[in-house]
Structure formats: C-alpha cells, structure tokens
Recover the amino acids of this structure.
C-alpha cells in the first residue's frame, strides 16, 4: 500500500468541540464494516487493508501525534501501524476487539518511535492537519496543539484516545493498562486545563 500524506488528519476538530461546543465535528461511520474480518484478511487483500486504512488513518495519526508531538514522525507511525497490521498472525475474528487492537498497535508504534527518535523530536514544530475549511485548518490546528502542550503525556493520550478515536474509558484503561478510574480522572483534569487555557487565551 502506498501511503499518501494527503490522507492524514489530526482529528483535532473533536478536541476543538470540547472547547467550542457549537462547532461541528467530523464523524466517521464504520458500523457497516466488520473490522475483525478485515483485520484477519488484510494481509492477503489490498482492498481490505485500504478499507481499514480509510477507517482508522485519522485516529492513528492523532494518537501518534499525541505521543510524539512530531508531524512527520506521526506520518511514519501511521504507515508502520498498517504494515504491522498485515503481519498479524494471532487475531480472532469472532472474539477480538478490532478497533482496540488497531489503536493498541498505533500507540505501541508511537511510543517505540518516540523512544527511538526522542532527541530529534524534542524541538520539533507542532502542527496537525485536519479536514475542513482550508482557511481555518492551520489556525485551528496550531491553536489546539498549543493547548495540548499544557497537558502531561498521559493526559494528552487520554484526550486523543477519547476524543479522536472515540474509545470508552474502559477501552482506554485496557490500552493504557491502568484503572478506569485513573483514566476518568486524567480526562477530567485534562478537560479542565484545556478549557481554562482556552478561556485565558480568548
């Protein structure tokens, strides 16, 4: 699969909606597809892989950026996530949690890349692209990313997993390997920080 950077999106519109409830956000409908079966067959079917890519590219990028804070490194994480998806040997179409499985791979790849390229990303420019009105894209993206810098690493991950990937607190707790109560606490604190900083900047 050829990875085209024009498909990448940060998903920060959903974070923006938390700060500006009247803004319209983008929703991705994946209910019509059996994600688990697509995962099982993606190693042998380009069509199935492309369907998964279309469904999850935005969430994967957002997760990667939330961890690495580097646009180009996040692009690499997206590509690597879907490459690894084609190499999966053990996944049950009947019992597996396809969405959580992909998000976990994405998070692991991003953490791995951050450790590997930490020195290179520490001083990188902060920028996520998103879909929407072209005139507002850069302004909104930079604004959201500046706000996210006020959060701790784990708070930022929770916000991205909840708002961009639309995972439940239970699913996030499983991925981050911590109690659900901890996830909820991080989320509430992060939202309070974001709303406070957004208000202070207006």
């Amino acid at each position: 699969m050829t990875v085209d950077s024009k498909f990448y999106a940060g998903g920060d519109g959903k974070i923006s909606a938390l700060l500006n409830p009247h803004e319209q956000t983008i929703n991705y409908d994946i209910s019509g597809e059996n994600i688990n079966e697509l995962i099982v067959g993606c190693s042998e079917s380009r069509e199935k892989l492309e369907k998964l890519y279309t469904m999850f590219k935005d969430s994967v990028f957002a997760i990667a950026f939330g961890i690495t804070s580097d646009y180009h490194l996040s692009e690499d994480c997206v590509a690597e996530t879907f490459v690894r998806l084609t190499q999966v040997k053990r996944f049950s179409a009947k019992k597996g949690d396809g969405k959580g499985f992909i998000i976990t791979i994405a998070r692991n790849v991003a953490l791995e890349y951050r450790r590997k390229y930490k020195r290179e990303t520490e001083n990188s420019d902060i920028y996520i692209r998103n879909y929407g009105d072209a005139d507002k894209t850069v302004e909104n993206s930079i604004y959201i990313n500046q706000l996210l810098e006020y959060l701790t690493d784990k708070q930022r991950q929770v916000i991205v997993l909840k708002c961009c990937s639309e995972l439940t607190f239970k699913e996030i707790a499983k991925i981050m390997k911590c109690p659900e109560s901890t996830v909820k606490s991080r989320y509430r604190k992060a939202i309070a920080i974001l709303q406070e900083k957004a208000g202070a900047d207006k």
About this structure: Residues 57 and 127 are 17 Å apart (CA to CA). Confidence is low (pLDDT under 50) at residues 1-13, 21-32, 123-138. The chain has one domain: 5-201. The first helix runs from residue 13 to 19.
